[in-house]
Amino acid sequence: MEQKVLVAHGTANGSTQEIAETVAEVLRTTGITAEVLPARSVTELDRYEAVVVGGALYAGRWHKDARRFVRRHRGALAHRPVWFFSSGPLDSTASQRDIPPVPGVKRAMARLDARGHVTFGGCLTEGAQGRIARMILRNGKGGDFRDFAAIEDWAMGVAKELGAMTHR
Ligand SMILES: Cc1cc2nc3c(=O)[nH]c(=O)nc-3n(C[C@H](O)[C@H](O)[C@H](O)COP(=O)(O)O)c2cc1C
């Protein structure tokens, strides 16, 4: 049976969307049908068997689109396998160690009995919106710290768990 998975993302500058797209590409290599959508544009989850939600981190919280998505769809999410990822640190820490979810995401994980969470490195490059973003860039603290090999590995783990669920 076809398995359809939604990868929803909350992003301000687009780098979390690219992570979501990479996750979906990996899922597709295993025969899963994966759709990537901005979290704010999703109206219902009926046609998805499982959901991955990714949020960019801003001031210790997920981007509001990801937070609102989880709130709006909490009923449907509670009845599906759910994985979360966060994207944020503008250094190599996320590649070196496991960075736990921020408190709001941790609470959502507990409420929804989420299967897993990972924090990936973030990305902030020229053209990013906002005063603080421009300040970070001016101070030479920007860069792309996303580890696409780690993103692919994590997505493969999700695919394997999904496969194990359907072949039981
Ligand atoms: C104003 C501002 C606040 C940020 N706050 C955090 C934070 O609290 N934790 C974190 O890990 N990264 C933080 N970051 C880094 C972003 O999460 C990172 O740039 C991320 O990749 C942005 O994702 P996006 O391109 O999808 O919007 C912050 C960046 C900016 C510009």
From TrEMBL:
Signal peptide location: none
Matches recorded under Pfam families: Flavodoxin_5
Organism for this UniProt entry: Streptomyces coelicoflavus
Cited InterPro entries: Flavodoxin/NO_synth, Flavodoxin_dom, Flavoprotein-like_sf, Protoporphyrinogen_IX_DH
Protein name: Flavodoxin
UniProt xrefs under Gene3D superfamilies: 3.40.50.360
Upper lineage: Bacteria, Bacillati, Actinomycetota, Actinomycetes, Kitasatosporales
GO BP: heme biosynthetic process
GO molecular function, one term: menaquinone-dependent protoporphyrinogen oxidase activity
